[in-house]
Design goal:
The chain has 129 residues and is an alpha+beta fold. Helices cover 41% and strands 16% of the residues. It starts with a helix and ends with a helix.
């Protein structure tokens, strides 16, 4: 465990916004001026391989990272790009469709809802008035 890895882990663990590697780098850089973006990328990949966080691909431009490794799902605002966690216990208990059961081994179930968050919806409504 290096000081860089520890600081990267702390930053992702306290983040509520599912940050990208670039965001983590910008947040860690003031505390560790010599850190490189490559170090952040490699460290996040290592953390994912170790099961300390998960990779979340919600937009084509940036992979986001989620420190919450418990079973949960995501709501993604297509306007502001914020990602919100939510749980759906009923979904987790549903039987897989026949085609999915016959596909192979399913290791994880995740739902990703895309739309507009309340903040963006309210902003649009104020704009339209």
């Amino acid at each position: 465990m290096t000081p860089q890895r520890l600081e990267i882990f702390r930053e992702v663990a306290r983040a509520q916004d599912h940050p990208s590697a670039e965001q983590v780098y910008k947040r860690v850089k003031p505390k560790m001026p010599n850190i490189s973006l490559d170090t952040v990328y490699r460290t996040l990949a290592t953390f994912e391989q170790c099961g300390l966080l998960s990779k979340l691909i919600v937009f084509e431009d940036h992979t986001r990272f989620d420190p919450n490794t418990s079973a949960h799902h995501h709501m993604v605002c297509t306007e502001c790009r914020k990602v919100y966690d939510f749980s759906w216990p009923v979904f987790e208990k549903l039987e897989l469709p026949r085609r999915a059961r016959g596909w192979g081994i399913i290791n994880d179930r995740q739902v990703q809802l895309m739309g507009l968050c309340k903040e963006c919806l309210n902003r649009r409504e104020r704009k339209d008035k």
